[in-house]
Amino acid sequence: MEAEITDLSHNGRGVARVADKVVFIHGALPGETVRFKYTARQRQFDEGRVVDIVRPSADRVEPHCPHAETCNGCALQHLQPARQIEFKQKTLVDNLNRIGKVQAERLLEPLVGTQWAYRRKARLSVRWVEKKQRVLVGFREKDGRFVADCSGCPVLHPDIGERLSELSELIGSLSVYRRVPQLEIACGDQCSAIVVRHMDPLTADDIACLTGYMQASGLQIYLQAKGPDSVTPLQPGFPPLRFTLPEQGLVFEFGPLNFIQVNADLNRRMIARVLDIMQAGPQQRILDLFCGLGNFTLPLARHAGEVVGVEGDSALIALARHNAQLNDIQNVRYYAADLSEESDRPTWLDTPYDQVLLDPPRAGAEFILPQVAATGAARIVYVSCHPASLARDAGLLVHQLGYRLTAAGVMDMFPHTGHVESIAVFEK
User: What is this structure's pTM?
Assistant: First the structure.
């Protein structure tokens, strides 16, 4: 079929209307005329992929990765980077207007950083493919059913992205090659780790094979037989994974399954922006909600009088306390608490705060916002990984809780994807 593309969807697909029905088309850009093939039909919309570009957009570029057309790890490599940022900023603004019924008083300049080899955390699919008689390791194809056959990945950290073929051969050499569904990867500043999820026990030969590869590659290999609590190092004595924030003189230690921001370069820029916005002083008390391992808490503690960090994952709270001790930071307190549902007023809210930082997961911070407003904080800085939940929460803060949306902007945490990371500033 032939179609005129009028827009981009939230996940980077071209939007067209064919026979009075919306079609989302992989690989198409606004302003283009394309020929496409249907890949799925739904009641409300259809899906397709580009077969031929009849009239290309001036913003179209040749993808850097040879697997970009099939692999779903990136959705926007065919769109020049400057236009990717504009698309993400438009997505943020549209969500704020449509869902939250709010408009930022000013738009912040988008934060951009490294475009390639930026991704230091990922979950890679693993599958034995009968027709190819080998194991594939990588992201899934665009239709989600199969693992993309990729020899390498330019957005992954080179420790992993340049080794996809090696990892495919490694898993294929194990006795349990059909029973390894995924690899978790985590890259620190000095070394990188792989967690091998295996659903059947490994043999002595399997262990020897993995050990040999680990010694040859320099990667840390962990084994996961069941849930996250079952993760163990292939050999004892691995040094902890680490990343640094040089401008703040901070070092963070983390485990291979712990959450950290995916993009190291953008994370440093994002922290610098937060510090610049908050301008925390020695007389101020700061509340950091969804604080994780202290990514924002510890940089803020370099400037504020006291910072309180709260996180639902007790293991991350233990790690945050460890990182505070590692950096000899004494003016932080950490609490483990579920922030995703309504609860009685916790003790850490018994005293007022000057400012609050929020960095919630995709679901947002809806349940905790009334209690945040009750702290009397003059400013709330909200870091978001999902513009729709941010927009909903912005509407609540502005229309019900007495705040103004003074600034908002996007941060390119995931270049070449449709993922929209953003920051919003609310003031009394």
Answer: 0.95
